[in-house]
Design goal:
Biased composition (Basic residues): 1-15
Shape: flat
Strand content: 5-15%
Keywords: Metal-binding, NAD, Transferase, Zinc
Active site: 188 (proton acceptor)
Radius of gyration: 37 Å
Biased composition (Basic and acidic residues): 21-34, 340-352
Number of strands: 8
Organism: Polyplosphaeria fusca
Length: 444
């Protein structure tokens, strides 16, 4: 069944493409025609193998998270490039595109598309924009809170360490985490801006928000055009934004590269990590090893969830508390709502119950203070005894031999003058452990 479905989708694609002459040009670009395109395509397809553990590093002390943190703490990472994929947003509730059961494409069947990717096909959009706006209604910014991974990228910028953040995501969560737009290269566009697909006239953000909420299709506001409007998300059949190509050389001058939450399977984005210099440490924070990450001597793989990985790295850098505080600020209203919900769940207490709790609390505090006071008195008494004992020892050492003997006999008599309840002699003041030589003589 799955084979038939796959073929059906392929036939739909072929039918859709046959009547579109521009497809031939796009096909040529994807196969590497054109200087810029082929360069990225070739770099993304480089064959690689995992580095052997015995091979020494060039820049880092070792291929470990702790070594990366030390590299940052020591001030060697002043120009960090970050490359984000959909995996950094999944914990925010936004599905990725290609997961078999939970991915975005797997959940588009209800839109009656000829194939899932058609929702992002510019040719299909021209003929039927409604499916895209049904999807935009669910993905539009404002519905999802940035993850702590988004806040980590913002923290790098706050510390003056971020050179640029490249992202494949269209959800704008980097922006909502506090990262300025000029620090982000949205390789596949985003919901941040919108315009007419014909004359490119910008479209007001408030009108776009209204259209998305109402699931209606906006049209150009220009008097001479009635073209369809869409967010500046890169659809199949459209060029990547110019900002991507203008900034694609930045990994070459970076001193640290951090790749997070991406399969590195979509080009030309997938070729960015390969543009880093050989001696530049590259860190992959991802569920699994991808691309050529791990093939160089200074590649460090932190496998697991992105949120867990950035917490570990931030902790090793000494930033974890600051990172958590920054992330908490991304949802102050939510924090208040959660506090109110917790308060509602607790039963309302009567005045008598509140007074009883207060008395119990005060009683515990008094008992604790008394225990502390007794402990202090006991320590002070022992301290004074030891001090007097040490002073007595010093004075005894200074006496002539006969005087010392007399002092010893006097001490022994004093000790024997005190008895327990059964008239047995006892030691006075615990002095035997201070004057062991005196205690030995008194037993003769």
């Amino acid at each position: 069944i799955s084979v038939n479905i796959g073929r059906k989708h392929k036939q739909h694609r072929q039918q859709l493409h046959q009547s579109k002459p521009w497809r031939d040009g796009e096909k040529g670009r994807r196969e590497g025609k054109g200087k810029g395109r082929s360069r990225f395509h070739k770099m993304g397809q480089e064959e690689s193998s995992m580095i052997d553990d015995s091979q020494p590093t060039q820049t880092l002390d070792s291929r470990t998270l702790e070594s990366v943190a030390k590299f940052i703490r020591d001030g060697h990472a002043r120009k960090i490039v970050v490359m984000n994929g959909a995996g950094i947003s999944t914990s925010a509730g936004i599905p990725d595109f290609r997961s078999p059961e939970t991915g975005l494409y797997a959940n588009l069947a209800r839109l009656n598309l000829p194939y899932p990717e058609a929702v992002f096909d510019i040719s299909f959009f021209r003929n039927n924009p409604l499916p895209f706006y049904a999807l935009a209604h669910e993905l539009y910014p404002g519905k999802y809170r940035p993850t702590i991974t988004h806040s980590f990228v913002s923290l790098l910028h706050k510390k003056g360490l971020l050179l640029k953040a490249f992202t494949q995501n269209i959800d704008c969560l980097e922006r909502e985490a506090g990262l300025p737009g000029d620090m982000i290269v949205e390789a596949h566009g985003s919901f941040a801006e919108q315009s007419c697909i014909e004359c490119k006239t910008p479209y007001p953000k408030d009108l776009m928000h209204k259209a998305v909420v109402e699931k209606t299709v906006p049209h150009c506001i220009s008097d001479n055009c009635d073209g369809l409007v869409k967010p500046q998300i890169v659809f199949f059949g459209e060029q990547l934004p110019a900002s991507f190509f203008l900034n694609a050389g930045l990994p070459e001058v970076a001193d640290l590269c951090i790749v997070m939450g991406t399969s590195l399977s979509v080009h030309p984005f997938a070729g960015l990590p390969q543009r880093c210099s050989d001696g530049t440490p590259r860190v992959l924070i991802n569920q699994e090893q991808v691309g050529a990450m791990g093939s160089r001597s200074d590649d460090v793989l932190i496998l697991g969830s992105c949120d867990s990985g950035v917490r570990k790295l931030a902790d090793a850098c000494g930033w974890l508390e600051e990172l958590e505080e920054m992330w908490a600020k991304t949802a102050p209203e939510k924090a208040e709502e959660e506090a109110l919900e917790r308060a509602k769940e607790q039963p309302v207490k009567s005045r008598d119950e509140e007074l009883e709790e207060e008395v119990e609390k005060m009683t515990k505090e008094v008992e604790q203070n008394l225990r502390l006071g007794e402990a202090q008195h006991e320590w002070l008494a022992k301290h004074i005894d030891r001090k007097i004992a040490r002073k007595g020892m010093d004075e005894a050492d200074q006496l002539p031999e006969e005087a010392a003997k007399e002092a010893t006999e006097q001490t022994t008599m004093t000790a024997q003058s005190v008895s327990s309840d059964n008239n047995e002699p006892v030691t006075v003041g615990g002095l035997s452990h201070v004057f062991p030589h005196l205690a030995k003589k008194s037993s003769l």
